[in-house]
């Protein structure tokens, strides 16, 4: 099964992606993972991507798309894949469709986790990380036993800069601006599976499973 997983930051994509991949025996492919792998393998496109990343610049679409093409050619994608974080724009979606057509493949479903901004902000603003060992907590959903102190190593808990409310609102604005046209794009193709991303991990997973039943 060839899938795309979409959703705003804080939607819980990582957890759901892992569960989907285990269930359908397919690899999870994220843009970040692909870029890191291409750099590590020092492919031609990997070296090109590295030159932009080292300079602190965004990797151009044509390079990312080439790396996606290379990744989808690997043997572990033979029976399907889950794309996470790609495509982000309609032009990228068009390029992906061309890649898959050349490989006699197609996207079978696009799972979009719908989570209200207020909940995303609550989830992300409440995250805390131990500055010493990296353990993760949440002030509301998974608090440490002692406020601002790590249960594991007694280190101090901190809030990452990108988890501040101002930063999260900007990330959400960018996501909505980029992704809304993409949601319409896949909706028109009859591929979009809009999933209520509120509730427990199990409840959300069950909704996704039900939506994909008709695709399998």
CATH architecture tag of the domain at 2-26 and 79-116 and 166-213: 3-Layer(aba) Sandwich
What's the helical proportion of residues?
A: 40-55%
Order of helices and strands: EHEHHHEHEHEEEHEH
Largest sheet: 5 strands, parallel
Report on the architecture of this protein.
The structure is a single chain. The chain has 216 residues and is α/β, with parallel strands linked by helices. The protein has a domain at 2-26 and 79-116 and 166-213: Rossmann fold, CATH 3.40.50. It is 49% helix and 15% strand. It has 8 helices and 8 strands. Strand 5 (127-130) and strand 6 (136-138) form a beta hairpin. Helix 2 packs across helix 3 (44-54), helix 2 crosses helix 4 and helix 4 (61-72) packs parallel to helix 5. The longest helix is centred in the C-terminal third of the chain and has 24 residues, at 165-188. The N and C termini lie close together (7 Å).
List the topology elements.
Blueprint: E1 2-6, H1 13-24, E2 28-30, H2 31-41, H3 44-54, H4 61-72, E3 81-84, H5 90-102, E4 109-114, H6 117-125, E5 127-130, E6 136-138, E7 157-158, H7 165-188, E8 192-196, H8 201-213
Parallel strand pairs: 1-3, 1-4, 2-3, 4-8
Antiparallel strand pairs: 5-6, 5-7
Helix pairs in contact: 1-8, 2-3, 2-4, 3-4, 4-5, 6-7
